[in-house]
Amino acid sequence: MIATGFSDKEIARRLNISLATAKLHVHNLLGKLNVQRRGQVVVRLHEHAQHPGRVRLDPTGSSFGSIANP
Description:
This protein is 50% helix and 0% strand. The protein has a domain at 8-54. It is mostly helical. The N and C termini lie close together (11 Å). Helix 1 (8-15) packs across helix 2. The chain has helices at residues 8-15, 19-32, 38-50.
């Protein structure tokens, strides 16, 4: 949803969760991807899609759990 350009408010509505929860999840995702801005998520995902074996979504090596398998 971030890659599609949805705001935190739109994400919360679509997932039927509170705005605070949506913000928390977005914040956690940005941290796991080691990026500071939402637009960087798109770049990181695009890089991974182009070179899945060479570009790690998370350069720190931590696992994503359900984030990697939506």
